[in-house]
């Protein structure tokens, strides 16, 4: 029998602790496993507990303090060990602060040995109500708050929190930092997957629901994927907007490099994919929030026709120049036919690597 695993994510310690405690009390047969990365000390601390109290606490040294190393060195082995023990009916895995659940989900699902003992039933994102909108759309960095998971972790809080919400099956908004603003909750609902459960208050966490198996990897990864191509549901709130900008054409490398801020800057969430005529086989990832923007190499297009699609979500009034800026960045038919794009460099090497690697 496979043991249900609830993966808990977040960008602040207080909401994660509150959600873990609430889930433990609602699942009396559960064991909780909390991991914390200290990037400066290069250590990983593990605390295992159930309703009887703390069962074990250990700090181990990591050769490189990061989420991938933590998963490999201790998180996944500990989950397997707890499942094999047979004393508990479910496991609540409190991932390191700022760690997204996607990698853990894939490891636990794709490893056949682990899949015989463990089953991810729910991915939970826990956020603080009093600063909800700022955590989703603000420009803070995780390292500025001391919540980074490695020495070189320069991710934005908004980028990380939005990605967690997009993958989550359940989103819990706590009131430890104040009551959530209604507009912030509507923003959260727009970012979250349409069938995800969004609850305000840890008292509404249903332990039985967490272990039933609401997590469907193909659905969760489909919604959170930067390459999603399906139509999006309408936004039902008047004070929340979404712009779905798409085209079969690539971005012009020089114009994109000169005008990244036209799409990337601003108090909004932006997520999607694009392609460049200099790297036609490579799907490129666009991931930003609150003015912080990351671009990177994704998977190959394969047999799919390449496309460019950036989805932006914000509050208040949508910025009219954004749609025009998107159109200006696209390669025109004349530019595509009048010029060869077989050049040695395109200016994106610092972010996407040398062009020869994708030729």
UniProtKB/TrEMBL annotation:
<keyword id="KW-0547">Nucleotide-binding</keyword>
<protein>
    <submittedName>
        <fullName>GTP-binding protein</fullName>
    </submittedName>
</protein>
<keyword id="KW-0143">Chaperone</keyword>
<feature type="domain" description="CobW C-terminal">
    <location>
        <begin position="240"/>
        <end position="330"/>
    </location>
</feature>
<dbReference type="Pfam" id="PF07683">
    <property type="entry name" value="CobW_C"/>
</dbReference>
<dbReference type="InterPro" id="IPR036627">
    <property type="entry name" value="CobW-likC_sf"/>
</dbReference>
<dbReference type="InterPro" id="IPR011629">
    <property type="entry name" value="CobW-like_C"/>
</dbReference>
<dbReference type="InterPro" id="IPR027417">
    <property type="entry name" value="P-loop_NTPase"/>
</dbReference>
<dbReference type="InterPro" id="IPR051927">
    <property type="entry name" value="Zn_Chap_cDPG_Synth"/>
</dbReference>
